[in-house]
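step 4 of 6: structure.
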Amino acid sequence: MSPGGAGPPGAEALSCYTANLALYLAHHRPDALAHIARSVRLAVRTDTPVPAFSHHATALNDVDRLSHLAYAAAVDEDAALSAISSELREQGLVLVVSNTSTMEWSVSDKAAAPHFLLVDGRRRGEWHVDDRFTAPRPGGGERPYSGWISQAALGRSLTPIVPLPHHLRLRNVHAFGFPVPVPPDGQIHWLTRSPQPPPAAALPGRWMTDIAAVIDVLEAFWSDPQAWPERTPFLDDMWAAAQHHTFRYRHLRAEASPTGSDWAAVSDAILAWQDVPMALNFAASSQLRGRPRPSVVKATFERLREAELRGRAVAAAHGHIHPDP
Amino acid sequence: MTDLDAATVGLTVKRVVVRESRLSIDPMQVADDEPLRGELLHVTSVGLLGMLVRLEDELGVTLPDDLFAGQSFHTVADLVEVVTRGARRSVA
Protein backbone atom coordinates (compact mmCIF):
# COMPACT_ATOMS: atom_id res chain seq x y z
CA MET A 1 0.00 0.00 0.00
CA SER A 2 1.13 3.58 -0.55
CA PRO A 3 0.29 6.83 1.23
CA GLY A 4 -0.79 8.34 -2.10
CA GLY A 5 0.42 11.24 -4.17
CA ALA A 6 0.96 14.81 -3.09
CA GLY A 7 -2.07 16.27 -4.86
CA PRO A 8 -5.46 16.71 -3.23
CA PRO A 9 -7.74 13.68 -3.50
CA GLY A 10 -10.88 13.91 -5.62
CA ALA A 11 -14.40 12.69 -4.94
CA GLU A 12 -13.46 9.23 -6.25
CA ALA A 13 -11.33 8.76 -3.10
CA LEU A 14 -14.46 8.83 -0.92
CA SER A 15 -17.07 6.14 -0.22
CA CYS A 16 -20.22 4.92 -1.97
CA TYR A 17 -22.37 7.58 -0.27
CA THR A 18 -19.94 10.49 -0.08
CA ALA A 19 -18.29 10.27 -3.53
CA ASN A 20 -21.40 11.49 -5.34
CA LEU A 21 -22.68 13.54 -2.40
CA ALA A 22 -19.44 15.51 -2.86
CA LEU A 23 -20.38 16.19 -6.49
CA TYR A 24 -23.81 17.40 -5.41
CA LEU A 25 -22.45 19.67 -2.68
CA ALA A 26 -19.76 21.01 -5.05
CA HIS A 27 -22.61 22.42 -7.14
CA HIS A 28 -23.51 24.64 -4.18
CA ARG A 29 -20.16 25.24 -2.47
CA PRO A 30 -16.75 25.21 -4.15
CA ASP A 31 -15.07 23.97 -0.97
CA ALA A 32 -17.17 20.78 -0.84
CA LEU A 33 -14.20 18.41 -0.77
CA ALA A 34 -12.45 20.40 1.96
CA HIS A 35 -15.73 20.57 3.85
CA ILE A 36 -16.10 16.78 3.72
CA ALA A 37 -12.44 16.24 4.62
CA ARG A 38 -12.88 18.34 7.75
CA SER A 39 -16.09 16.52 8.65
CA VAL A 40 -14.45 13.10 8.90
CA ARG A 41 -14.72 11.22 12.19
CA LEU A 42 -15.66 7.74 13.30
CA ALA A 43 -18.25 7.36 16.04
CA VAL A 44 -19.84 4.08 17.10
CA ARG A 45 -23.20 3.55 18.76
CA THR A 46 -22.76 1.20 21.69
CA ASP A 47 -26.22 0.89 23.27
CA THR A 48 -27.83 -1.19 20.52
CA PRO A 49 -27.46 -4.91 19.69
CA VAL A 50 -25.57 -4.08 16.52
CA PRO A 51 -23.35 -1.03 16.05
CA ALA A 52 -24.19 2.02 13.98
CA PHE A 53 -21.41 4.15 12.56
CA SER A 54 -21.25 7.90 12.06
CA HIS A 55 -18.52 9.03 9.68
CA HIS A 56 -19.05 12.80 9.79
CA ALA A 57 -19.05 15.32 12.62
CA THR A 58 -20.77 17.89 10.40
CA ALA A 59 -24.22 17.19 8.98
CA LEU A 60 -23.49 16.74 5.29
CA ASN A 61 -27.16 17.03 4.33
CA ASP A 62 -26.79 20.75 5.11
CA VAL A 63 -26.51 22.16 1.60
CA ASP A 64 -26.05 25.86 2.33
CA ARG A 65 -27.44 26.46 5.86
CA LEU A 66 -30.72 27.54 4.23
CA SER A 67 -31.73 24.20 2.74
CA HIS A 68 -31.01 20.55 3.32
CA LEU A 69 -31.24 17.17 1.66
CA ALA A 70 -34.00 14.85 2.85
CA TYR A 71 -35.04 11.42 1.67
CA ALA A 72 -38.15 11.21 -0.53
CA ALA A 73 -39.79 8.05 -1.80
CA ALA A 74 -42.37 6.59 -4.15
CA VAL A 75 -43.86 3.13 -4.32
CA ASP A 76 -43.66 2.69 -8.08
CA GLU A 77 -41.11 3.50 -10.76
CA ASP A 78 -43.27 5.88 -12.82
CA ALA A 79 -44.07 8.05 -9.80
CA ALA A 80 -40.43 7.99 -8.72
CA LEU A 81 -39.08 8.99 -12.14
CA SER A 82 -41.66 11.74 -12.42
CA ALA A 83 -40.66 13.18 -9.04
CA ILE A 84 -36.94 12.79 -9.81
CA SER A 85 -37.53 14.61 -13.09
CA SER A 86 -39.20 17.49 -11.23
CA GLU A 87 -36.33 17.69 -8.74
CA LEU A 88 -33.85 17.66 -11.64
CA ARG A 89 -35.74 20.49 -13.37
CA GLU A 90 -35.80 22.58 -10.21
CA GLN A 91 -32.30 21.92 -8.88
CA GLY A 92 -30.30 20.95 -11.95
CA LEU A 93 -29.16 17.73 -10.32
CA VAL A 94 -30.50 15.11 -7.96
CA LEU A 95 -29.07 12.31 -5.87
CA VAL A 96 -30.95 9.03 -6.12
CA VAL A 97 -30.52 5.94 -3.98
CA SER A 98 -29.47 3.23 -6.37
CA ASN A 99 -28.84 -0.47 -5.91
CA THR A 100 -25.26 -1.62 -6.60
CA SER A 101 -26.44 -4.97 -7.92
CA THR A 102 -28.63 -3.46 -10.64
CA MET A 103 -26.42 -0.60 -11.89
CA GLU A 104 -25.32 -1.75 -15.34
CA TRP A 105 -21.81 -0.23 -15.06
CA SER A 106 -21.06 -1.81 -11.69
CA VAL A 107 -18.81 -4.87 -11.63
CA SER A 108 -19.77 -5.61 -8.06
CA ASP A 109 -20.18 -9.30 -7.35
CA LYS A 110 -21.17 -8.49 -3.82
CA ALA A 111 -24.63 -8.45 -2.32
CA ALA A 112 -26.81 -5.50 -3.18
CA ALA A 113 -26.12 -2.30 -1.25
CA PRO A 114 -27.60 1.20 -1.38
CA HIS A 115 -25.57 3.79 -3.26
CA PHE A 116 -25.93 7.53 -3.88
CA LEU A 117 -25.95 8.19 -7.64
CA LEU A 118 -25.94 11.65 -9.19
CA VAL A 119 -28.46 12.32 -11.98
CA ASP A 120 -27.70 15.58 -13.75
CA GLY A 121 -29.40 15.50 -17.13
CA ARG A 122 -32.35 14.19 -19.07
CA ARG A 123 -33.18 14.02 -22.73
CA ARG A 124 -35.64 11.96 -24.75
CA GLY A 125 -35.72 8.52 -23.15
CA GLU A 126 -32.33 8.92 -21.48
CA TRP A 127 -30.85 10.19 -18.25
CA HIS A 128 -27.32 11.43 -17.58
CA VAL A 129 -25.68 9.92 -14.52
CA ASP A 130 -22.36 10.62 -12.84
CA ASP A 131 -20.87 8.04 -10.52
CA ARG A 132 -17.40 8.78 -9.14
CA PHE A 133 -17.29 5.80 -6.82
CA THR A 134 -14.21 3.59 -7.02
CA ALA A 135 -13.44 0.50 -4.99
CA PRO A 136 -11.28 -2.60 -5.28
CA ARG A 137 -13.31 -5.70 -6.06
CA PRO A 138 -12.44 -9.25 -7.04
CA GLY A 139 -14.15 -8.60 -10.38
CA GLY A 140 -11.66 -5.86 -11.26
CA GLY A 141 -12.86 -2.93 -9.21
CA GLU A 142 -15.54 -0.27 -9.42
CA ARG A 143 -14.57 2.55 -11.77
CA PRO A 144 -16.13 5.99 -12.25
CA TYR A 145 -18.89 6.12 -14.82
CA SER A 146 -20.37 9.17 -16.46
CA GLY A 147 -22.79 8.93 -19.34
CA TRP A 148 -26.31 8.67 -20.72
CA ILE A 149 -28.32 5.60 -19.77
CA SER A 150 -31.78 4.56 -20.87
CA GLN A 151 -34.79 5.23 -18.69
CA ALA A 152 -35.16 1.47 -18.29
CA ALA A 153 -31.57 1.23 -17.03
CA LEU A 154 -32.13 4.05 -14.54
CA GLY A 155 -35.32 2.36 -13.39
CA ARG A 156 -33.43 -0.89 -12.81
CA SER A 157 -30.73 1.00 -10.90
CA LEU A 158 -33.39 2.26 -8.51
CA THR A 159 -34.69 -1.22 -7.65
CA PRO A 160 -35.27 -1.26 -3.88
CA ILE A 161 -33.44 -3.88 -1.85
CA VAL A 162 -36.12 -6.08 -0.30
CA PRO A 163 -35.82 -6.92 2.48
CA LEU A 164 -33.26 -4.27 3.37
CA PRO A 165 -30.85 -5.76 5.94
CA HIS A 166 -30.69 -3.80 9.17
CA HIS A 167 -27.01 -2.84 8.79
CA LEU A 168 -27.79 -1.33 5.36
CA ARG A 169 -30.74 0.62 6.76
CA LEU A 170 -28.40 2.00 9.42
CA ARG A 171 -26.05 3.20 6.68
CA ASN A 172 -28.90 5.07 4.97
CA VAL A 173 -29.95 6.60 8.28
CA HIS A 174 -26.43 7.83 9.11
CA ALA A 175 -25.21 8.62 5.59
CA PHE A 176 -24.84 12.33 6.42
CA GLY A 177 -23.20 11.82 9.81
CA PHE A 178 -26.35 12.28 11.87
CA PRO A 179 -29.55 10.23 11.77
CA VAL A 180 -32.24 11.38 9.36
CA PRO A 181 -35.69 9.93 8.66
CA VAL A 182 -35.64 7.18 6.02
CA PRO A 183 -38.80 6.18 4.11
CA PRO A 184 -40.17 2.64 4.41
CA ASP A 185 -38.30 -0.26 2.83
CA GLY A 186 -39.45 -1.46 -0.54
CA GLN A 187 -39.90 2.04 -1.95
CA ILE A 188 -37.70 3.89 -4.43
CA HIS A 189 -35.68 6.56 -2.62
CA TRP A 190 -34.02 9.78 -3.72
CA LEU A 191 -32.93 12.99 -2.04
CA THR A 192 -34.88 16.17 -2.36
CA ARG A 193 -33.59 19.64 -1.49
CA SER A 194 -35.86 20.93 1.20
CA PRO A 195 -36.06 24.75 1.37
CA GLN A 196 -35.62 24.88 5.13
CA PRO A 197 -32.55 25.03 7.36
CA PRO A 198 -31.32 21.58 8.35
CA PRO A 199 -32.66 20.09 11.56
CA ALA A 200 -30.38 20.18 14.60
CA ALA A 201 -27.62 17.60 14.31
CA ALA A 202 -27.58 15.15 17.21
CA LEU A 203 -26.71 11.53 17.89
CA PRO A 204 -29.47 10.03 20.04
CA GLY A 205 -28.50 7.17 22.33
CA ARG A 206 -25.03 6.29 23.58
CA TRP A 207 -22.21 6.92 21.11
CA MET A 208 -18.48 6.63 21.44
CA THR A 209 -16.90 9.63 19.71
CA ASP A 210 -13.40 9.78 21.21
CA ILE A 211 -11.24 8.11 18.57
CA ALA A 212 -8.97 6.26 21.03
CA ALA A 213 -12.03 4.79 22.75
CA VAL A 214 -13.59 3.99 19.36
CA ILE A 215 -10.47 2.08 18.33
CA ASP A 216 -10.60 0.15 21.63
CA VAL A 217 -14.21 -0.80 20.91
CA LEU A 218 -13.42 -1.82 17.35
CA GLU A 219 -10.41 -3.88 18.39
CA ALA A 220 -12.59 -5.85 20.81
CA PHE A 221 -15.41 -6.06 18.27
CA TRP A 222 -13.24 -7.50 15.50
CA SER A 223 -10.90 -9.72 17.50
CA ASP A 224 -13.59 -12.00 18.93
CA PRO A 225 -13.44 -15.08 16.66
CA GLN A 226 -16.80 -16.39 17.88
CA ALA A 227 -18.61 -13.32 16.65
CA TRP A 228 -17.27 -13.22 13.08
CA PRO A 229 -20.29 -14.47 11.15
CA GLU A 230 -22.51 -11.71 12.52
CA ARG A 231 -19.81 -9.08 12.07
CA THR A 232 -18.85 -9.72 8.48
CA PRO A 233 -21.58 -7.35 7.12
CA PHE A 234 -19.79 -4.48 8.88
CA LEU A 235 -16.55 -4.94 6.92
CA ASP A 236 -17.74 -2.35 4.39
CA ASP A 237 -18.36 0.16 7.20
CA MET A 238 -14.71 -0.22 8.18
CA TRP A 239 -13.62 0.16 4.58
CA ALA A 240 -15.62 3.40 4.40
CA ALA A 241 -14.03 4.65 7.64
CA ALA A 242 -10.59 3.92 6.21
CA GLN A 243 -11.47 5.71 2.95
CA HIS A 244 -12.74 8.77 4.80
CA HIS A 245 -9.73 9.05 7.12
CA THR A 246 -7.30 8.49 4.27
CA PHE A 247 -9.15 11.21 2.35
CA ARG A 248 -8.89 13.60 5.30
CA TYR A 249 -5.17 13.08 5.70
CA ARG A 250 -4.42 13.28 1.99
CA HIS A 251 -6.42 16.50 1.82
CA LEU A 252 -4.57 17.89 4.83
CA ARG A 253 -1.21 16.97 3.32
CA ALA A 254 -2.06 18.69 0.04
CA GLU A 255 -3.62 21.79 1.58
CA ALA A 256 -1.41 22.44 4.61
CA SER A 257 1.86 20.97 3.29
CA PRO A 258 3.14 19.73 6.66
CA THR A 259 6.87 19.09 6.83
CA GLY A 260 9.27 16.89 8.75
CA SER A 261 7.75 14.85 11.55
CA ASP A 262 4.28 16.25 10.84
CA TRP A 263 4.42 15.01 7.26
CA ALA A 264 5.63 11.63 8.50
CA ALA A 265 2.83 11.43 11.07
CA VAL A 266 0.16 12.18 8.48
CA SER A 267 1.61 9.71 5.98
CA ASP A 268 1.84 7.05 8.67
CA ALA A 269 -1.80 7.63 9.62
CA ILE A 270 -2.79 7.13 5.97
CA LEU A 271 -0.95 3.81 5.84
CA ALA A 272 -2.39 2.69 9.17
CA TRP A 273 -5.96 3.34 8.00
CA GLN A 274 -5.30 1.61 4.67
CA ASP A 275 -4.12 -1.44 6.62
CA VAL A 276 -7.41 -1.79 8.54
CA PRO A 277 -9.66 -3.20 5.76
CA MET A 278 -6.77 -5.36 4.55
CA ALA A 279 -6.29 -6.85 8.00
CA LEU A 280 -10.00 -7.36 8.60
CA ASN A 281 -10.57 -9.03 5.25
CA PHE A 282 -7.54 -11.24 5.86
CA ALA A 283 -8.97 -12.11 9.28
CA ALA A 284 -12.36 -12.85 7.70
CA SER A 285 -10.74 -15.14 5.15
CA SER A 286 -8.65 -16.82 7.87
CA GLN A 287 -11.79 -17.34 9.93
CA LEU A 288 -13.52 -19.02 6.99
CA ARG A 289 -10.51 -21.34 6.57
CA GLY A 290 -10.69 -22.32 10.24
CA ARG A 291 -7.56 -20.34 11.13
CA PRO A 292 -8.83 -17.42 13.26
CA ARG A 293 -6.27 -14.62 13.59
CA PRO A 294 -7.36 -12.24 16.37
CA SER A 295 -3.72 -11.35 16.92
CA VAL A 296 -3.50 -9.86 13.42
CA VAL A 297 -6.55 -7.70 14.20
CA LYS A 298 -5.10 -6.58 17.51
CA ALA A 299 -1.70 -5.70 16.04
CA THR A 300 -3.37 -3.67 13.29
CA PHE A 301 -5.57 -1.68 15.67
CA GLU A 302 -2.64 -1.10 18.05
CA ARG A 303 -0.69 0.47 15.22
CA LEU A 304 -3.77 2.44 14.10
CA ARG A 305 -4.25 3.83 17.62
CA GLU A 306 -0.73 5.24 17.72
CA ALA A 307 -0.71 6.50 14.15
CA GLU A 308 -4.19 8.06 14.33
CA LEU A 309 -3.44 9.95 17.53
CA ARG A 310 -0.24 11.38 16.03
CA GLY A 311 -1.93 12.20 12.73
CA ARG A 312 -4.95 13.66 14.47
CA ALA A 313 -2.75 16.02 16.46
CA VAL A 314 -1.31 17.39 13.23
CA ALA A 315 -4.79 17.69 11.71
CA ALA A 316 -6.05 19.55 14.77
CA ALA A 317 -3.08 21.93 14.69
CA HIS A 318 -4.00 22.82 11.12
CA GLY A 319 -7.71 23.23 11.89
CA HIS A 320 -8.65 20.15 9.91
CA ILE A 321 -10.87 18.52 12.52
CA HIS A 322 -14.36 19.66 13.35
CA PRO A 323 -15.29 19.53 17.02
CA ASP A 324 -18.45 17.52 17.66
CA PRO A 325 -21.47 19.85 17.56
CA MET B 1 5.40 -27.46 9.06
CA THR B 2 8.71 -28.21 7.43
CA ASP B 3 11.79 -26.05 7.43
CA LEU B 4 11.47 -23.93 4.30
CA ASP B 5 14.56 -22.69 2.54
CA ALA B 6 14.75 -19.24 1.05
CA ALA B 7 14.79 -20.59 -2.50
CA THR B 8 11.49 -22.45 -2.00
CA VAL B 9 9.83 -19.39 -0.49
CA GLY B 10 11.16 -17.14 -3.26
CA LEU B 11 10.04 -19.44 -6.05
CA THR B 12 6.60 -19.98 -4.55
CA VAL B 13 6.06 -16.25 -4.07
CA LYS B 14 7.11 -15.57 -7.66
CA ARG B 15 4.83 -18.32 -8.98
CA VAL B 16 1.92 -16.82 -7.08
CA VAL B 17 2.55 -13.25 -8.22
CA VAL B 18 2.89 -14.39 -11.85
CA ARG B 19 -0.44 -16.21 -11.59
CA GLU B 20 -2.08 -13.23 -9.89
CA SER B 21 -0.83 -10.95 -12.68
CA ARG B 22 -2.18 -13.40 -15.27
CA LEU B 23 1.20 -13.75 -16.95
CA SER B 24 2.56 -16.78 -18.71
CA ILE B 25 6.25 -16.35 -17.97
CA ASP B 26 8.78 -18.37 -16.05
CA PRO B 27 8.54 -17.19 -12.43
CA MET B 28 12.33 -17.26 -12.24
CA GLN B 29 12.37 -14.34 -14.68
CA VAL B 30 10.81 -12.12 -12.02
CA ALA B 31 13.42 -10.10 -10.16
CA ASP B 32 13.34 -9.84 -6.39
CA ASP B 33 13.02 -6.06 -6.63
CA GLU B 34 10.19 -6.19 -9.20
CA PRO B 35 7.37 -3.84 -8.11
CA LEU B 36 4.10 -5.61 -7.36
CA ARG B 37 2.28 -2.83 -9.21
CA GLY B 38 4.53 -1.93 -12.10
CA GLU B 39 5.11 -2.58 -15.76
CA LEU B 40 5.35 -6.35 -15.32
CA LEU B 41 3.25 -7.29 -12.30
CA HIS B 42 -0.29 -6.06 -11.64
CA VAL B 43 -1.21 -6.96 -8.08
CA THR B 44 -4.20 -5.09 -6.62
CA SER B 45 -5.00 -4.84 -2.92
CA VAL B 46 -7.68 -7.52 -3.37
CA GLY B 47 -5.17 -9.68 -5.25
CA LEU B 48 -2.56 -9.18 -2.54
CA LEU B 49 -5.00 -10.46 0.07
CA GLY B 50 -5.74 -13.56 -1.99
CA MET B 51 -2.02 -14.18 -2.50
CA LEU B 52 -1.28 -13.99 1.21
CA VAL B 53 -3.95 -16.59 1.89
CA ARG B 54 -2.65 -18.84 -0.89
CA LEU B 55 0.93 -18.53 0.35
CA GLU B 56 -0.12 -19.54 3.85
CA ASP B 57 -1.89 -22.59 2.46
CA GLU B 58 0.69 -23.61 -0.13
CA LEU B 59 3.66 -23.27 2.18
CA GLY B 60 1.91 -24.30 5.39
CA VAL B 61 3.04 -21.19 7.22
CA THR B 62 1.33 -18.71 9.51
CA LEU B 63 2.08 -15.15 8.48
CA PRO B 64 3.21 -12.75 11.24
CA ASP B 65 0.70 -10.90 13.41
CA ASP B 66 2.08 -7.54 12.29
CA LEU B 67 1.34 -8.46 8.68
CA PHE B 68 -0.70 -5.27 8.24
CA ALA B 69 0.81 -3.19 10.99
CA GLY B 70 3.31 -1.09 9.12
CA GLN B 71 4.43 -3.75 6.67
CA SER B 72 4.91 -2.38 3.15
CA PHE B 73 4.31 -4.56 0.12
CA HIS B 74 5.99 -2.74 -2.73
CA THR B 75 8.14 -5.46 -4.27
CA VAL B 76 8.39 -9.23 -4.59
CA ALA B 77 11.14 -9.13 -1.95
CA ASP B 78 8.72 -7.55 0.56
CA LEU B 79 6.41 -10.53 0.13
CA VAL B 80 9.29 -12.99 0.39
CA GLU B 81 10.44 -11.30 3.59
CA VAL B 82 7.05 -11.53 5.31
CA VAL B 83 6.54 -15.16 4.24
CA THR B 84 10.03 -16.03 5.47
CA ARG B 85 9.23 -14.48 8.84
CA GLY B 86 6.02 -16.49 8.88
CA ALA B 87 7.95 -19.67 8.12
CA ARG B 88 10.38 -19.03 10.98
CA ARG B 89 7.47 -18.35 13.33
CA SER B 90 5.74 -21.54 12.23
CA VAL B 91 8.88 -23.61 12.87
CA ALA B 92 9.39 -22.01 16.26
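step 5 of 6: annotate
 - The first helix of chain A runs from residue 18 to 26.
 - DSSP finds ten helices and nine strands in chain A.
step 6 of 6: archive
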